[in-house]
Amino acid sequence: MPIMNDTSLRASDIIWETPVCASCGSAERRHVITSFDYEISIECEFTIVECADCGLCYTCPRPEIRQLIENFYPDDYICYIHADENATMGRLDSFFDMRTNGPRYRRLARFANGRSISLLDVGCGDGYLLKHLKRRTDWQLRGLEPNPKMASYLNRQGLEVDCGLLHEMNYEDASFDAVILTHVLEHTPDPLAVLQEISRIMRPGGMLLVEVPNFNAFGRNLMKRYWWGYHLPRHLYHFTPQTLSALASKAGLVRTGLRYPFLFGSWAWNIHIMLKMSRAPMILAEALTYRHPLLLMSGAPLELINVVLRRGNLMELCFEKQKRA
After folding, report:
1. Which residues are within 8 A (CB) of 181 and not within 5 positions of it... i.e. 6 or more apart?
2. Which of 80, 173, 209, 306 is 20 to 30 A from 197, comparing alpha carbons?
3. ∠ at Cα 216 (210, 248), nearest 5°?
4. Of 50-54, 97-101, 176-180, which range is least confident?
């Protein structure tokens, strides 16, 4: 989605809250970086801190959760872009998604090993993954989406999608073989509680796939406050492989895999954000959008190098629920 120029929401309008670390409960923290909301409210700045005890990074202070949902998530939020199947850029995103996320589908297929597994996609967005799996498998597929309009749309498309938040659903214990969290966990105010609930509803030996931005990415070190992956204030937590694995272990989930997906367009985002938020001429920022072919193509080799060096902008972690002794 394009970066918006709405500056009507200022820091003085925000109801702030000061969380403690979701992993260890410590209130001791140190400053990491201050950056912007580069999509909606560019007059507000937000700070990321690191827990002094366990190293988990999170946004602090942050908007009160209800205000965050109401004021910082527009109807055309980026996770719904594929839903417009007539949009050229939506089709382009789908094209690259299929080619960069193939390992995810293959990992799920290896886990299923010919079985008809039950799978829950938490925060399924436009339903892209569910649609792909429905066309190619006989699995029992279910989605969960907090956006009522999108949930209704997906149900009309023939998918089985519940509307609400995970803790509201009261799914039965051990009711799913696999659970997917794609760009969801970083948005939650209590990621440990989410992982614990997922562990409860997963069968022993079940698989959890989590994809989030990689806070240890080379791109973050290079771009500093202009890195696309901050996505403030919507991203409440900022994970590395180590901190996410440690958090998941507290929910009885053991890491079994880690990969760094190729994120087409991440460097175009980085450059566009830098132009938009710096003193660069506005006409240049508006011309070189994150969809500009020059930025897209020029950034692709750099992202590929980062992936090979295991410092990519994205990371996908695979976890297994521990079996009872």
Report:
1. 122, 123, 194, 198, 208, 209, 210, 211
2. 80
3. 35
4. 97-101
Q: Which of 125, 121, 129 is nearest to 98 (CA)?
A: 129
Q: Which two tokens stand for residue 177?
A: 């073989």
- What lies within 8 Å, CB to CB, of 186 at 6+ separation is 212, 213, 231, 235, 236, 237, 238, 239
User: At 138, is the secondary structure helix, strand, or coil?
Assistant: coil
- pLDDT tens for 283-292 read 665 656 666 6
Q: How far is CA 287 from CA 83, 266, 282, 301, in A?
A: 26, 17, 9, 22
Structural tokens at position 236: 């409440």
DSSP-derived letter for residue 5 is -
Spell out the domains of the chain, with CATH numbers in brackets: 11-321 (3.40.50.150)
Sign of CA dihedral 261, 320, 235, 75: positive
**Residue 255 parent element (H or E):** strand 253-259
| Interatomic CA distance for residues 80 and 211, integer angstroms | 17
Express each pLDDT in 112-147 by its tens digit: 999 999 999 999 998 988 998 999 999 999 999 998
* Cα torsion 97, 98, 104, 105: sign: positive
- The answer to whether the beta carbons of residues 106 and 132 sit under 8 Å apart is no
Return the residue matching tokens 């990969």.
259
Round to whole Å and give the CA distance between 75 and 69.
11
Q: At what angle do helices 266-277 and 293-308 cross, to 10 degrees?
A: 120
